[in-house]
Write a structure and sequence with these properties.
Strand content of chain B: 5-15%
Helix content of chain B: 55-70%
Largest sheet of chain A: 8 strands, mixed
Shape of chain A: globular
Distance between the termini of chain B: 57 Å
Number of helices of chain B: 1
Strand order of the largest sheet of chain A: 13-22-21-14-15-20-16-19
Strand content of chain A: 15-25%
Structural class of chain B: mainly alpha
Number of strands of chain A: 22
Oligomer: heterodimer
Shape of chain B: elongated
């Protein structure tokens, strides 16, 4: 049985193919179109999923869509009724897409894929809940979904057992922790639905001196339920998200690209503290209600890895699962698994142990690409040579692009489409920023470590929780190890680590171990293979272009080593295209 | 300027003009819908005390709304609402 999950028209359009209960393929549309957070119908991602599964559109039994469009439309209309006589600009901007696309998904599917079968519409937060629980190793779990807004729900609590998921409580729009975070992200001069993680990275530079002030705008109850004071926020236009009253409360907002003052850092710190307070209260309340040891979280707020790293210490939960695409992209997977396991009541056979669900290229395809484009390269004789030479290049402070295996599912590069570097070099953060990433100096780089070595270097929960494999937990780096890891130690001594188990990616795992033999530290810098403003690379061409347009020194692509110095430079100027 | 360049520029210009006209018509038509459709519903609703969105102060100890959402018959999922 083949079920195609689809998420589209909000942010991070994606597709996922579930074949006989197992996730065969999943990818975000942005990787194919090269438009970050592409919201359009995921025609390319669907095409890839069908190819990977070896099925045609006619062989799909059901399409599972990640929300109920008319429920969402009702909420959008209520917003217009509420804000009338204001709100015309938002009405003018959104109505055409509602009429043309959003409520005619069946027609679009038929037109773009040829699929003529049934489309099942799963409520947005149920799709989130399913994306975490039905991909988890748990037979029973408490569930928290928390994001900006689904149809009209912003947060849900629930529980699941076997194939059944029940959501029991919810918060309604506009009372949303996700929108609260996004509004302050906008206030701090960053891009909504894109830069929230930057605010999280900025927070450790500040002190939560604005906590009491921000508390005036949000009420957080003991049970974690929240209520926003809507005098301070406006959510019918994502360009602003905050009112003049918030400006009077906090002072002038930071302009995009403007100077980063200490008060901005303090606001980010205060926002992070408030977010963590709300999340911990929600979770403690959820545990009180469910008394379960296992926890599944999903939704955009579940990408707040700083908060995630504190959950097991601050709540009674013992185990936690968050899937790598915890945001809206992941709902394509959730909707498809929900149809198979819950609606059709088929046995659960799948646990998401690796994020490698995207496209991959064979050695022959890579060789053909290199030859056709006359790209100078070296071919490693064997695996051992590849590992030794790559580890040596990294140890000698070269920046190495690493393009191997299937592209990752979710927003993080986890060792298939990554840029790797030496974490022991104090100047590496600056080198990466200057040569490749062009990103804000305050943002940290992430370490990757083999799972058994993680407790030696990080004050992490033990056993190391599953989400750490997907770079979703931030932990303090042990004080005595911080000096050895200057490139990945954030200003507060923390690191957003990725743990790797050998069975997930043997080559990547062995490379880290090989680097450990040279450096004495079995850890690498792992950052996504892209430049600021572009999606992570998807094809050999994307990878080569990214290397040549930036300061990446070498590209290791399957068994081929490509040196930037051996090939014509200045294909394009990455600095010119670096955006948000 | 060659003929083909002129033709290309002409087509592009005409297409841009078409899009501009399209935008203007959409703007006007949607404005009419907004004023005639959204306006009266909003005004009548507000006059009768209807809250379209749950805003404003409430003296409560919890804002969780109970809602049991579980598995339903497959036909229910075929609906967009």
């Amino acid at each position: 049985m083949n079920i195609l999950g689809v998420s589209a028209y909000f942010h991070d359009s994606s597709a996922c193919l579930v074949k006989d209960g197992k996730v065969i393929a999943a990818a975000e549309e942005e990787r194919f179109t090269r438009i970050k957070h592409d919201i359009r119908f995921p025609a390319n991602a669907i095409k890839y999923c069908l190819q990977a599964g070896g099925v045609t559109a006619n062989e799909i039994d059901y399409v599972a869509f990640y929300e109920k469009p008319l429920l969402k439309f009702e909420r959008v209309m209520n917003q217009f009724f509420h804000s009338f006589p204001g709100g015309y600009w938002a009405f003018y901007k959104t109505m055409p897409s509602w009429i043309k696309e959003k409520i005619s998904i069946r027609k679009t599917l038929r037109k773009k894929t040829g699929y003529k079968g049934k489309v099942l519409f799963i409520e947005h937060h149920m799709a989130h809940a399913a994306s975490s629980y039905l991909a988890s190793p748990f037979d029973e779990a408490a569930i928290l979904t928390v994001d900006g807004v689904g149809e009209s729900t912003t947060t849900t609590l629930g529980h699941a057992k076997g194939n059944e998921i029940t959501l029991t409580k919810r918060l309604e729009f506009p009372h949303s922790l996700g929108l609260f975070y996004s509004a302050l992200t906008a206030y701090l001069g960053f891009k909504v639905n894109n830069d929230e993680y930057k605010v999280m990275g900025l927070a450790p530079y500040g002190k939560p001196t604005y906590y009491d002030t921000l508390r005036k705008t949000i009420e957080i109850m003991d049970d974690g339920s929240i209520r926003l004071d809507t005098n301070y926020f406006v959510f019918d236009d994502l360009r602003t998200m905050f009112t003049d009253r918030l400006v009077r409360l906090l002072g002038p907002p930071r302009k995009k690209g403007g100077p980063m003052e200490q008060r901005h850092k303090d606001m980010a710190a205060s926002l992070q503290v408030l977010t963590e307070e709300a999340v911990m209260k929600m979770l403690n309340h959820l545990h009180k209600e469910t008394k379960l040891d296992n926890l599944c979280i999903a939704g955009g707020v579940a990408l707040n890895s700083v908060a995630n790293g504190k959950i097991l210490k601050n709540t009674p939960f013992k185990n936690i699962f968050i899937q790598p695409a915890a945001g809206d992209g992941g709902t394509a997977m959730g909707a498809a698994l929900y149809v198979y396991n819950t609606i059709l009541k088929k046995e659960r056979e799948y646990v998401l142990e690796s994020s490698s669900l995207g496209p991959e290229f064979s050695t022959d395809q890579m060789k053909r690409f290199l030859d056709e484009n006359k790209i100078s390269h070296k071919e490693f004789r064997n695996r051992e040579e590849l590992l030794k030479e790559t580890a040596k290049l990294i140890w000698e402070n070269n920046v190495v692009g690493w393009f191997h295996g299937r592209m990752e599912w979710g927003p993080r590069a986890l060792g298939n489409c990554s840029i790797l570097a030496n974490p022991c070099n104090p100047g590496m953060k600056d080198i990466l920023n200057l040569k490749v990433k062009h990103r804000e100096a305050f943002r940290p780089f992430a370490p990757v470590v083999c799972v058994e070595d993680a407790p030696d270097y990080f004050e992490c929960d033990e056993p190391v929780p599953y989400p750490t494999d997907f770079m979703l937990m931030v932990y303090p780096i042990r004080k005595k190890k911080q000096e050895a890891l200057p490139a990945v130690t954030h200003v507060d001594g923390s690191g957003r680590l990725q743990t790797i188990r050998r069975e997930q990616n043997p080559l990547y795992y062995d490379l880290i171990k090989e680097f450990g033999k040279l450096s004495g530290v079995p850890i690498l810098v792992n950052t996504s293979f892209n430049i600021r403003g572009e999606p992570i690379v998807c094809t050999p061409e994307n990878a080569y272009r990214c290397m040549m347009g930036t300061g990446i020194d070498f590209l290791v692509m399957d068994k081929f080593l490509i040196s930037r110095n051996d090939n014509p430079k200045d294909m394009w100027d990455s600095e010119k295209v670096a955006g948000d | 300027m060659s003929v083909s360049e002129f033709a290309r520029g002409f087509v592009q210009g005409f297409r841009g003009f078409g899009m501009f006209v399209n935008d203007v018509i959409s703007f006007v038509l949607l404005l009419i819908v907004f004023l005639v459709g959204i306006g009266p519903v909003s005004l009548i609703g507000k006059a009768t005390g209807k809250r379209f969105i749950p805003v404003g102060n409430e003296d409560r100890t919890s804002y969780w709304a109970p809602r049991i959402l579980g598995t339903e018959a497959i036909e229910r999922y075929e609906k967009q609402y």
